[in-house]
Design goal:
Shape: globular
Largest sheet: 7 strands, mixed
Number of strands: 20
Distance between the termini: 63 Å
Radius of gyration: 23 Å
Amino acid sequence: MYRYHIYEQLKKFASADKNFHVPGHKGKGEFAKMFPAAKFDVTELSYSDNLFCPQGVIAAAQKDLAEITGAEKSYILTDGSTCGIFSMLYVLKKRGGKVIIPRNSHQSVWNACKILGLEPLPVRGKICEGVLLPPDCGEVERALDGADDIAGMLALSPDYYGNIAPISEYKQILGRRGKLLCVDGAHGAHLFNEGENGAYSGRYADMRVDGAHKSLSVLTQGALLSVYAAPLIADAGEALSVFRTTSPSYPIMASVEYGFKYLSNNPQAYFKAKAAAEEYKNNAKELCFYPSDDWTKLVWDLKPAGICADKALCELEKAGIYAELSDGRYIIFYLSPSTNASSLKKLLKAQKQVISLAKLADTYFERSALPETLRVCGYLAAAAAPCEAVELSAAEGRVCAVNAGVTPPCIPVICAGERISREVIQVLTNAKNTFGLTDGKVWAVKQ
């Protein structure tokens, strides 16, 4: 059984006088009543250890986490997966000027490439039921053949829809050429519990980031960066010293340790939740689902019912059900080892009520969540070029200068260096929440 080193230490000193060190709330007054975790919210002290040079409870926690994930070294992050993404790309930049990435990579990947001066070589998979799949091995091979100075690949697995990429095959292709494989596993921290036959990409990656808060019992922003190739440890440490906050949250740190160790100590909790999800599916035969590879991604397909997913989501929220997102066709529900059978029964009841509503009949219309785009120049070149804000309605045919997309899932619909199409304009115009636009305008390279 693993101990919860950080939590135990914070609890031991919870009543210590906090008057003379940061944070400013001092663990007192109305704040402490409103935010009970205030008693654990401390800074780098003699008893709490230091994330930048851990020698005490943080060091013990990270050692255990490396053992759990099979890594040479693991680093707790309180800045979300984004910090891990930037750190992995920092390590890759030391080994080449280009990196292969899936076209549906998170905006943080594109941002890191821009800041680090790393040219992304996007590879696009096939479309399955309106969802972009991970790129196949042939696409990766062609990218390697078509460019020099490639440091490696930053793969994505699983993605927002639960697609698992062929990570072991990627590793073989990249390994033969001496290239690194890093993995954005932000949506798959729970998969370490699947055993040797599971889909946890840490078995093949040189580096991997887990967005632990997305699928484990971890506070938001809690993540883990794991290094599997020992020669990369020094560079990873250097990268983290650049991108990691110097004021990390101790409650978040404690929760990251807890999230992984709880499942290691209580594996039955994981499989109980997974069984509940399977039972839910068995009881939902009249509903249609996207064939996700990951049981925690419950992707409800409203197209066969002729219902707009956005409208269905509004009805679900009236019943107290809040999903991760709707893309017009699918509503994605994010499950976790904390999901129980009773909550799934409530969900199924609400879903059945929604599809029976006459007012939702024939409201579905086809739209692409990620339309195919044409790249006309390099990403870095377009991002550095003089640009201007253009009304979306007048942007067709222009070359994008600043990524723009929909959040969630925070994936660019159009990237710098790609030509803006009518389909792209339609997606961005219809989206409720976007990024990269300014007052409804898109940034385009000046003509």
